[in-house]
Queue: 3 jobs
Job 1
Amino acid sequence: MDQGAGAVGVGNLAPGILSESTGGALAVQASIDRSDRDASGRIPVYVHSAPGTYLYCPVCPTGGMALTWFRDRFGQPEVARERAEGVSAYDQLTGMAAGVPPGADGLIMLPHLSGAFSPEYEPAARGVFFGFTLGHGREHFVRATLEAVAFTLRRNLELLEGIGASAEEVRSHGGGARSALWNQIKADVCSLPVVTLQGTEAAVRGDAMLAGVASGSFSDLDQACAAAVRPEARYEPHLETHAAYEATYRRYVELFDSLRSLFRWTEPPLAAPEGPGRPAPLSQWPREDVT
């Protein structure tokens, strides 16, 4: 499992450590010594590669893919410049978002473009932009997207905290960890330091560490971790910014809860008659392969 390898690759080997990966999806990893902590069954749990440890791994199917979706649909100028000048379209978009204040001037996004899994299982959930006005521009939508993933991260951290999985920092990996702005937003929203490691592809490093232990190059994962896992940057939460995010976060949670019954509208009833102009059920739509 790539999330298990990623947890190894950031040194998430024992209780008291949390990590998160913002790749296509958003996944959170917590090392816990028991498999029965979550009586509700809301959190996927796996046997960890670290001996005597289990990995709790809540997932949101759309993490970094939400920003990719925005880039592909609305970031044509940035994509064109990337092709012409080699300047990352992602860096251009997040640079725009850096000029927007926390809370995106009242614009809130729900990032569930592929349904919601954790902390609330709602496969019918869809993406939402709420509260936009004539005064909002593309930069606000990018900022709201970055914040939405951070809000989802916080909801899952709160879920893990409820079963005794808490930590003093979050170790971040995946493509999203390359964005200093996104890392800072996560730190401010969650009120926890976010630490990035040298080399964002933690799963590859974790696989190499496991291979090193299996081949005898390392005596155990602790030795492999000491040799291979090196911090790169640490993003401390800003207390004033965290306080400013509180109201927006509560609105984010309330917005999702308020829309749960309406999300069922996204799937036409199976018995509904087909006809001109009537969309087919989502299960029959063609799917794009996303890498």
Note: The beta strands are 18-22, 26-32, 45-47, 54-56, 59-60, 108-110, 128-130, 170-173, 194-197, 231-235.
Job 2
Amino acid sequence: MEKEFNTTFMNRSITGLMLVIPFFSLIYFANSFLTNIVITVISILIFLEWRGLAKERNLTVDLLFIIFFILGYIVFQEYFLFFFVSLLAVFWFIFSIFLFRNKLELISSIHFDNNALRLLVIAGFYSSLLLLVQTIEINHLLVFIIIVNTSLADICAYLVGSRFGKTPLLKNISPNKTFEGFVGGIAASLSFGLLMYYVYQLPISMVPIIIFSSLYAFVGDYFMSYLKRKSNLKDTGSILPGHGGILDRIDSHLSATTIFTFLFLLIQTIGI
């Protein structure tokens, strides 16, 4: 058991570093153009992997949506992006209510074959990252914060849950995820949020945003677990050692990034 834990953790860590180092290099040098390219490539890979998991595909709808998205962005710019972020944030809020009430069976449309769901989740995630990169002055810091916070919550939840986990959270969806792991992830996020607050002199409102987004990292994790369970899949792919597919690695980021961006821009607008 100990050997299996160490091997799995090592594979996850190596894969995580392979994904994180190039991205953080772009963030460090504050190159928005290259960062946007990386964000676009990642979103395309997510799109293709999800599409490959669907039994029913509609190429015409996909192409029309892509054209609609590009034209909408050209005409309305960040307002168009925020529309998709808001739309996806509402979806995550609603999904989380059904999730924690253990009533997901009432949402029959949550499956890999749902074309609208795939387009909404990926477009909202992509829009979130684009908006963060465009944010004046602290743009790359925001991308750094959300990526590290989500990854940290995920890793600490895995470590604490693997070592001390005894109480399953939603065992009908993902029996290996525990309450102890959940608390470990949130505690790590709280510590990271306070560290960022003191180091970068961020507004105090950023701390609850960071913590709240880590909560939704777990929602995204359960979301993908639910989709895989409905399709009788263990992984969404095999491209990443220790993680399976791209969606297996990015699942918590899909929701956490959207919620983080939505709350950050909302509070900025309100002026808190």
Note: The two ends are 48 Å apart (CA to CA).
Job 3
Amino acid sequence: MHLRLLLPSLSMLVLLPIARPATAPTTLPVEDRVRDLLSRMTLEEKVGQLVQYSGRDTLTGPGSQAELVPLIKAGGAGSMLNVHGAAKTREWQKLAVESSRLHIPMLFALDVVHGCRTIFPIPLGTAASWDLGAIEQAERIAAIEASATGIHWTFAPMVDIARDPRWGRIAESAGEDPFLGSTIARARVRGFQTDRLGAPGTILACAKHFAAYGAVQAGRDYFTTDVTERVLRDVYFPPFRAAVDAGVATFMAGFNDLDGTPCTANAFLLDRVLRGEWGFRGFVISDWQGISEMLEHGNVADLRDAARQSFLAGLDVDMEAQGYEKHLAELVRSGAVPVARLDAAVGAVLAAKFRLGLFEDPYRNCDEAQEKALLFAPAHREAARDLARRSAVLLKNNGVLPLKAGGITVAVVGPLADSAGDQLGCWSGLGERSEVVTLRAALAEAFPGARLRYAQGCLTTGDDTSGFAAARQAAAGADVIVAALGETANQSGESTSRASLDLSGPQLALLRELHATGKPVVLLLMAGRPLLLEAVDPLVDAILVGWHPGSMGGPGLADVLTGAYNPSGKLPVTWPRSVGQIPLFYAHKNSGRPTPTDPEGKYFSHYIDTPNTPRFRFGFGLSYTTFAYDSLRLSAPVLQPGGPALIVTARVRNAGARAGEEVVQLYVRDRVGSVTRPVRELKGFEKIALAAGESREVSFRLAPADLAFCRADMTFGPEPGAFDVFVGGDSNAALSAPFTLTAP
């Protein structure tokens, strides 16, 4: 499907009477227009641009926010959160544009995390596709739909590296790896903004949560982090830097503290690194009430000082904490905050509005007919179905999959088999449960009539087993059982940290009941994170991870189960055997005692009750065919700074009987560094399609910059020495070859 097919109706705009601000001519550069407008703004109007409020449905009547009306008319709100819909955004925008002195439009923001009305798989799921084109297309569609509802700004992508599945927000991440996370960050920013911000269907993207929010201790949300600067630069910073390089318009500071200072007021992050080192020229917003939460962190005595510290550190916009609303003007008047700092922050916000074209058309896309035509459009639904199947990861298959369509009866059992809301997952935007096609509904088309049996069996919580009898009855009349188990949408995402990663409630007991029937059992795992499978594995014949697959997840997963689509997903996270192994990730450092050398074989880095190895490796995923790798070669044994890139080439062959897709992965090991280095690091990947029996050579380019890291002296760059490359289908890639990087 080509993106151009999604865009024609965006040009069908209703012309509305517009009160435009008296700004400098549109032919002037944005910087000049910003400077002109700033020169005519009062202190209070400037502060207003840096304040964001969260809206509700109505401006009048019970439960309304009528108290905001005079404030908006006075130019006291630069942006609104959670106001959406063409009619509603027009109503709110009219207050700002037609009643305020300078007619400055507001920005309308919404958490469009993995789709707007058409919901795609959760970000951890889309990362499992390793398909950058499909990921970018999903965000393009999300931006088109969001824009059609009057939204100008999304608080996505979340680019936090997440290595602890106890943390619920791993569901919103691209997983554990900085390289994969960086490539996906760029794709998502491009999808939201394209390369022409302000074009039809584009919205401001926001890289969040800066920084290391995914490293909260013990996986407990909103908790503290303890991360060295070296680890920040090597692991947690790269996806944020990639977002900057892709032109991301805004950043969001994290909730967490870092080295004793909350990210909300962390000048090292917001000023030195983000603006000083990376050259970011957009604006930074707090997370929800992040400024006022500094009082609980304990590094400020009152809201005034929290506002002062945050603003001086580089935080431009206050989301719902009232710190800037109440104190920023006085801080400027008293000299505690320089006027130049205020103008820089306001100027960045105004520049974004100019680039979006809001000063020319404040009611951008406030058109109900266009909104109706674009939301959940057929092409969008098909893209969601395609990404759902591309995101599915096959972890085990004892020959039961794909299901044979001819003549068999299937029992689909479990609390997630027919649960539309849970299929949407966390942060599901404006997704409608009534539009979701569940797994049960999709399988009913593949196995019509009496050939599909269904029973819920149990819930994911509690201890009620009264549904087991119906589940056994459904299974008794079937040839194969599909057990849809895992987590509800409310069991993953923000504020859903888990100390146990076992199947919750009576789900494991239900699985034992199904196993006891003697019928083949396929576990379809719908979850926002890796769940422990040690007790599960002996009970099932196949394991397919479907994540929370979104609006069209049912048809997408049915395509995989029936073989209409050959699974091609690969894990973007390491899958642990035990909670005790966490955090567990492939790119770990080596120990001084990696293997036993003593006579007892005891004194080395290991557990006494579980292997060191994960249950499933990063980058792993099965197919209905098999792939073979050989013929690894390098263009040269030596890589020289200033010389040509090193070309790494391997041959990949589809050794099976059906067509399939494979994610070819390149890893590098730095044998000796000035500081300890990971055992392997992902440095490249390519997803290829091969017909049965087809072979193809896949090549990767390695430059010295690809080998850079935070060195002993805290500078960032490569070091000369010996390296190894590995090519294969997961992080345990076996093909290897050495090369040397010379000194400059």
Note: The mean pLDDT is 95.
